[in-house]
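Hi support team,

I've been running sequence recovery on a batch of backbones for a student project. Most finish fine, but this one hangs at about 90% for roughly twenty minutes before it completes. I'm not sure whether the input is malformed or the queue is just slow. I've pasted the structure tokens below so you can try to reproduce it. Let me know if you need the job ID as well.

Thanks,
M.K.
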């Protein structure tokens, strides 16, 4: 479902309440790729949805703490231990929700779950889910087998774009399955329509009950509702449904002004997938064909440094949340500058790998100084305020309008924020063939001399760079493969989606690896042995 279609508030929140009310003392698993995702994006809209339904925090449910003893709320059938309770939401009828994050190994171990819920499903690692989490969905059959929702799953997401998330789209085949009800064989999609019609009639009856004053008619409505809900429960057993909807379905609520703003501000690929819900597949054979997010991307947060994980509006953002950065060591930076977009890639070497820990960009009237400002603000708590700045020949020139080069401007802006800068000039930017081969060497990890460390990307903080790398096309030229730079010159392509960020990435890995894989300044050709 597209952005602002009510995935969490309108679908997730009511569905979870339905399961909680029908299964008192049950256990529900809330599946996220990271615990940060749960705290910052999954739970806050659920809180809003529950409040709209009349369920109040610390009255009907308690987050991260057990309910007060004096309320005599029943314990769950298979409740969590004291330590695990910190990551649970307890309800007034003894049911509880357990936050299961894939970046915290063992968070699903030993659990007996009656229902699974997942938001932003396109980020879920399917292999880990199948091996670790789905096995926990065995449920309390004795207590809840009569209820159609027992043992079920609900996953919500916007449109997946990467190969590892295509498992979501495969679920569309569920709509073509055949299922037998009351001796009649239904196509699953047709049965869904029948269930929807029944539910509409139940909703109408419930509204009539809400407004009806006559006692006899009220009793008749109650009997009708109970009868229809039993039929609905039977029809829903063993069913599955796949559905897609774009943000335009909710245009009357979102408003045309907001939709126009998204169109103006978002990356084209983001607008088309997250708003229009189009199926766009990022090229698998581009300029960086060896990039595999299952291998090269990671999630790593420092949860001990995060305060207020359970705040209704999510968590505060900054480098203190990052578990992949050594705050006592310098950071590596490289830039790409232009009139329409200015961007940077941030890296740091570790004992076992080289990490691309963040990517940033600014556009509009903002230029390189404002980009450095954003970097320094994000890394304000970094203890070692020192950066190694890699730059090429395009950053050393001046013209009649300025006496300072881009490299000078960046250094002065860093110094303004009390950062020390180590300037490393890589010389003439190598040609496309060299960059293609260097990226391939790093990503394939096949260097026989073992002179290089594996290259890894922070999946969240470097998300814009990862999209740019995946979208970068390749052309065959006279001298070999070339990066397709044509999108940078097209007015119909948003420049955040073009190859600018990949150029900053190229400069960063060239600067850091120039003496490790044979590239030596100021030559323009890498030598691979």
């Amino acid at each position: 479902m597209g952005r602002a279609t009510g995935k969490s508030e309108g679908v997730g929140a009511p569905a979870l309440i339905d399961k909680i009310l029908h299964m008192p003392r049950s256990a529900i698993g809330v599946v996220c790729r990271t615990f940060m995702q749960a705290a910052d994006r999954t739970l806050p809209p659920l809180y809003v949805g529950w409040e709209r339904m009349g369920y109040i925090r610390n009255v009907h449910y308690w987050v991260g703490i057990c309910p007060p003893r004096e309320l005599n709320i029943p314990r769950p059938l298979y409740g969590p231990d004291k330590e695990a309770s910190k990551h649970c939401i307890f309800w007034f009828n003894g049911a509880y929700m357990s936050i299961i994050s894939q970046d915290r190994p063992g968070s699903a171990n030993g659990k007996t779950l009656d229902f699974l819920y997942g938001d932003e499903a396109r980020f879920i690692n399917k292999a880990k889910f199948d091996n670790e989490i789905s096995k926990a969905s065995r449920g309390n059959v004795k207590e809840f087998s009569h209820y159609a929702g027992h043992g079920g799953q609900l996953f919500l997401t916007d449109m997946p774009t990467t190969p590892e998330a295509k498992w979501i789209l495969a679920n569309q085949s569920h709509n073509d399955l055949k299922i037998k009800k009351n001796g009649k064989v239904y196509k699953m999609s047709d049965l869904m329509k029948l269930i929807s019609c029944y539910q509409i009639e139940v909703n109408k009856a419930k509204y009539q009950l809400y407004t009806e004053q006559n006692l006899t008619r009220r009793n008749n409505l109650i009997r009708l509702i109970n009868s229809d809900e039993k039929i609905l429960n039977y029809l829903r057993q063993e069913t599955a449904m796949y559905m897609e909807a774009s943000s335009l379905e909710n245009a009357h609520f979102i408003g045309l002004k907001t939709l126009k703003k998204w169109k103006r501000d978002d990356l084209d690929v983001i607008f088309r997938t997250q708003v229009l819900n189009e199926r766009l597949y990022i090229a698998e054979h581009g300029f960086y064909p060896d990039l595999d997010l299952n291998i090269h991307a990671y999630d790593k947060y420092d949860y001990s440094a995060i305060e207020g994980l359970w705040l209704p509006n999510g968590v505060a953002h900054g480098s203190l949340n990052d578990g992949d950065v050594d705050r006592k060591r310098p950071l590596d930076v490289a830039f790409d500058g232009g009139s329409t977009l200015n961007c940077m890639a941030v890296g740091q070497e570790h004992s076992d790998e080289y990490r691309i820990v963040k990517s940033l960009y600014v556009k509009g009237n903002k230029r390189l100084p404002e980009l450095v400002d954003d970097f320094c603000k994000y890394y304000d708590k970094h203890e070692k305020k020192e950066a190694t700045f890699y730059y090429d020949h395009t950053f050393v020139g001046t013209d009649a309008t300025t006496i300072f080069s881009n490299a000078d401007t960046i250094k002065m802006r860093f110094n303004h924020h009390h950062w020390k800068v180590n300037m490393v000039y890589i010389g003439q930017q190598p040609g496309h063939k060299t960059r293609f081969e260097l990226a391939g060497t790093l990503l394939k990890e096949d260097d026989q001399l073992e002179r290089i460390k594996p290259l890894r990307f922070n999946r969240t903080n470097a998300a814009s760079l990862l999209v740019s790398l995946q979208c970068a096309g390749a052309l065959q030229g006279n001298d070999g493969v070339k990066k397709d730079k044509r999108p940078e010159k097209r007015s119909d392509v948003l420049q955040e989606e073009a190859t600018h960020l990949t150029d900053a990435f190229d400069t960063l890995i060239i600067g850091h690896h120039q003496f490790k894989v044979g590239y030596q300044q100021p030559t323009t050709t890498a030598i691979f042995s």
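--
Follow-up from support: It reproduced on our side and the slowdown came from queue contention, not your input. The first helix runs from residue 7 to 22. No action needed from you.
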